[in-house]
Amino acid sequence: MLSDKRGGAFVETLWSFGLIALLAAAAAPQSFAQDQTAKEQDLPTFHVDTFYISGGGGVVAGSDGKSVGGIFSLQAGGGFAVTALPYTEKYHGVQGPVEHPWSFWVTGNLLYNQADVKQSALSQAIAENPQNTGLLTATSAKVKYYSTTGDLTFRYQVAPKVSLYTLVGFGWLRRTVDFNGVSGPLTVIQSTSPSVFAPGSDSGAVEGGGGANFHVGLKGWMIYVEARVLHGIGSNSGATLVPLSGGVRW
Question: In this structure, which topology does domain 8-28+44-83+98-249 adopt according to CATH?
Answer without folding.
Answer: Porin (2.40.160)
